[in-house]
Structures are given as C-alpha cells and as structure tokens.
DNA sequence: ACCTGAACACCGTTCAAGT
DNA sequence: ACCTGAACACCGTTCAAGT
C-alpha cells in the first residue's frame, strides 16, 4: 500500500538528527544569529541539496531545533511533576527545572524563543508546526497537573475570576520573565545589578504562590533547604554538569 | 577649541533621526528580521556611505532604535509615576503603561528585546551603549520610586531577604513575562488559548502585590473600575490610537 | 530515485573616486 | 571635508546535470 521507498525511513531520520545536532553545536559556538546553512552543510557529510530535502529552509531547521529543545525541557518538567511532595513544592521544582534547562542549554532556550517569531512560523513546514503545537501542550499539562493536584487536596483555591489555565499560565509567565531577563546575564558588566537569577526566581515564585494563597505559605514554612535537597535528588546529572561549567545554584 | 566643523551639528542630528524613523517604519512594515541596510538607504535621501557615517553597522542602528524606544516608554512610565493615587495603584498603572506601549508600538518593544542580545551589543558603538545604560536606569528609577513611596507610607513592607531593587525587579519581571508571552498573540490561531493579555497582566500584578502584602489587598478592594478610569485620564491619546487600531483594553 | 554543487539574487561593509 | 556607489565576501535557495 505504501509507496515504494528506496531509502529506508531509519537512515533518513538519522540523517535529519545529524543535521539538527550539527546546527545546535554551531549555535553554541557562534550564536544563533550566525547560524548559516553554508556552515551546516560544511559540517555534515552530505550536500546542500540533501539538507534542503529535510528542511524546506533555514526557518524550518530552526523550528526543528526548537522542537528538540521542548522535548529536553519536557523531560525535566515531568520529573518535577512526578516528585513526591506537596503541590506547591513541586511547582517550585518545576520552575527550577526550567532554570536549570536555561542555564545548561542556553542555545536551546534561545532557539525556542526565536522559533516563536512570526518570521520563523511563517516559513516552517506544516508538519513541523503541528509537532510544535503538540509539544507545547505536553509542557503545559505538567503545570496544569500540579495546579489540579493543589486544588484537589485544598492546599490551593482558585482565586475569583481565574481558572486553572490562567493560574498555570501565571506560573509559567513569572518563571519565564525572571529567566529570560536574568539567565543570560554576564557577571554584572557595569556593577549594574546584584540580581541572581536563582534567588529572584525563588522570591518571585514564593510571592506569587503566597498571593494565590497556595499552602503552606512562606510565613509558615521556609522552603529553601528543602528545595536544595529535592533538586539534588531530581536532577543529579544536570547539577553535576552545571558544576563542571563552574555554575552552582546559590540561595543565601 | 573645538575642531572645525563644516557641517553643523543640527543638520547631522536631523539626518540621523531621519534614518532612525525610516528604519522603524520598515520594521513596522516588514518585520525586524527583514530590515536591511539596502532598504534603509533606498528610502533615505542620501547614500550608503553617509548612513555608515552615522551608524558603524546594522547593529548600531538597531541599538539607536532601541534607545529611541526606551525614551518613548520612559515618558509613559513617568506619567504613571506622577499619578495622584496610592502606590499600589500607581504600580499597576505603570505595568499597564508598559502594555499599552507593547500593543501600540510592537516594533519598538521588539527592537529593545532584540538589542539586548549579545550579537547586537557586541557590534554597537561605545557611545550608543552608554546612552542605552543611562536610559535603562531612567526606566528603573520610576519603578524604584513607586516602591519607595509604598515603603514610606507603610502600605508596603520589605519581605524578608528582599531589598528595594529586588522588589522593583519582581514587578518588572512579571509584567515583562505576561506581555512578552501574550501581547504578540494573534487571535488564538488554533483555539488554543483564552488568555487575554490585559486580564492576565491585571491578575499577575494583583497576585504579586498581594503576595508582597502591598495594601490595599485585593480582598479589601477591587481595583478594576478604578484602573479603567485612571488609564483614561493618564493615556487618553494612546487609548484613542488603540481604538483606531480596533484594540481596546478589556477587563471582564 | 537520489544526490551534487554551480549559479542567482540579495545582504552587510568598504573604500577609491569624485565634488 | 564630505559624499557616492561600485565592488567584495557571504548568505539562502534553486535546479540542471550527474549517478
């Protein structure tokens, strides 16, 4: 029934993965704005025409990288979701899994943001866009799930005029704000800032949760040492990798 | 003492402004990623070489646009700062002035974000970077000032482990998160989202302020109609412009 | 059927030649 | 002193020619 295929599906997928991996490495080394189809082709054991058989253009490749990035983040999110603890702590862990991802893979974090721009979406293939939608939903369900657990055990109550989706988005949004504004920061270039991303993410999360009345409130319980221990148990490899890069999460 | 100048300073400044204005119009029409020095030169009554006398490169032009954008935002911020009202309401107004700016001038909002990237900063002129720093400080002092007013009249108390700078940043960060994630949204393309940026900005702000214990708390006072009236008095022209574009702020 | 890379249009930047 | 625009290196994309 299927049309004749002279090239097997597996080899094709492998080739595609090679291109994506090479492109990510180039972004790491040169920055996303210096990613070039020429450079990708030069690093890959096949020709320009072949690369363009996999990706209809540069933007399509970018969205493929973004999709790969979301899968990586999704794995971290699901670990936070599955953690045995109270719902508020799990949401805090989820926010920190987002931070770990942004610090460990800045090129992936940036690719996802970049791929959200109209100019990328407008030039990517239908199929890649669909995959992007599905992966986005996957991310949100982890957040959604934790909120629902909080509602179920009464540690959290819906504020007036807000539904589960809005509450979930509020969490995503404040984490995104702090991480996007601070995680790329280079050592306070002009002495300009004493803001440390992990500390501010911790503060913003707790202020928001307190504002929601998500128990236990900060005044009733310090979540700080608990967080350090939980992070170590959930993300041992990731934290070790960060240590190698000379970057440790520091709450003080 | 000053070196001889055959071209007067005024004419030079005017020429520079012309280039910036043309570039902004091009970004509006074509998107920032399609801005081209060739296109700018084509729309301007002088040659490529002359444009490059004003801007050492494309990135320098981009930072000049970003600086212009910050000045526009700064004006809106200072109006919110000067509003006669309680500190919490003024901060809410400041957040909404940020939203109005992002909706009314999406190309400026995007330019500022874009100009924060390492690749732009790395290629801009020293002078333009200094101006950027100064303008950034100007923005933060408005926020800072409102927080200080809140502390002064005891409607706000510093949370443990947070200083004024951190509290100010928390506000900036949550506003940025909501606006960056939602303000560019096109009419929920796949029925995917019921999130309306003005409503969520309102919610997130109130949750954060409540978490800080910034009085009057939401439970003691609805800030919604008050906000609509204050916005109308502070930003009449801007709201009229939005209406022309068919975009009205809608809390419901 | 599949792959290749020369060729084309367009981009950012420079600088010798003009006035 | 100031301006111009041809020229260069590099980019994304295509497609005739090969196997």
Question: In which range does the helix fraction of chain A lie?
Answer: 55-70%
- Multimeric organization: homodimer
Query: What is the distance, rounded to the nearest whole angstrom, between the alpha carbons of the first and last residues of chain A?
Result: 64 Å
| CA gyration radius of chain A, whole angstroms | 20 Å
Low-pLDDT residue intervals, each spanning 5 or more residues of chain A: none
Order of helices and strands of chain A: HHHHHHHHHHHH
Structural class by sheet pairing and helices of chain A: mainly alpha
Largest interface: A-B, 40 and 40 residues
Percent strand of chain A equals: under 5%
Number of helices of chain A: 12
Largest sheet of chain A: none
What's the average pLDDT of chain A? 93
Please tally the β strands of chain A and state the result. 0
Query: What form of chain A results from the Cα inertia axes?
Result: elongated
In words, what does this structure look like?
The structure is a homodimer of 252-residue chains. With 252 residues, chain A is mainly α. Chain A is elongated. Helices cover 69% and strands 0% of the residues of chain A. In chain A, helix 4 (58-82) packs parallel to helix 8 and helix 9 (164-182) runs antiparallel to helix 10. The first copy, chain A, has a domain at 74-105 and 132-244. Chain A contains twelve helices and no strands. The A-B interface holds A 31, 33-34, 117-119, 133, 159, 161-162, 165-166, 169-170, 172-178, 180-181, 184, 190, 192-195, 199-200, 203-204, 206-212 and B 31, 33-34, 117-119, 133, 159, 161-162, 165-166, 169-170, 172-178, 180-181, 184, 190, 192-195, 199-200, 203-204, 206-212. Chain A binds a DNA duplex (19 and 19 nucleotides) through helix 3.
